[in-house]
Amino acid sequence: LPLVSRDIDIPPGEAAYRRTVRFTTPEPLTVIGVTPHMHLIGKEMKVRVVKPDGGETPLIWIRDWDFNWQGQYRYETPVKLPKGTRVEMEFSYDNSDANPQNPSSPPKMVRWGEQTTDEMAVTFLGILLPKPEDVAPLLRGAATMAFL
Fold first, then answer.
1. What's the sign of the alpha-carbon dihedral 75, 77, 81, 86?
2. Is the distance from CB of 48 to CB of 125 less than 8 angstroms?
3. Which of 58, 116, 126, 132 has its CA 20 to 30 A from that of 31?
4. Residue 143 per-residue DSSP state
5. What percentage of the chain exceeds 90 in pLDDT?
């Protein structure tokens, strides 16, 4: 299940640019792993869930992003999410001269793109669904992700 924000338009010099995506599960599901993805000026990323009863569970939080950390993180114990759970992804970027990972000096405008000098805000959740018929409602629900 991809959580994605393509709305990336980071001005030069911006040290705390944020993108957030929220998604509410239309069906119960189980998360077995997480794969976050940003490029060079990524600063911090976190993904958490808020269950219908208000309980919160962090899925991953990398406070000092490093492009070389990219990979899949699998859970020893899968995380079960009831129907109506809100999944939240928040990414931040540092497009300033103070960021030693910034490939542009002076900093330039950075937008969504495939090149390493562009940026992305993507988290893939590895999930299991109770039954095959649950795929269609999940895909319909995914089409309603809120991008903030």
1. negative
2. no
3. 116
4. T
5. 76
- The answer to whether 50 and 28 are in contact (CB under 8 A) is no
Among residues 120, 138, 126, 111, the alpha carbon closest in space to that of 60 is found at 126
Residues 6+ apart with CB under 8 A from 43: 16, 64, 65, 92, 93, 94, 99
pTM attached to this predicted model: 0.87
Q: How far is CA 104 from CA 20, 50, 73, 119, 126, in A?
A: 25, 37, 30, 13, 34
Where does residue 141 rank: exposed (0-12), middle (13-18), buried (19+ CB within 10 A)? middle
Taking the C-alpha atoms of residue 139 and residue 49, their distance in angstroms, rounded to an integer, is 18
In DSSP terms, 49 is beta-bridged to 57, 87
Does residue 146 surpass a pLDDT of 90? no
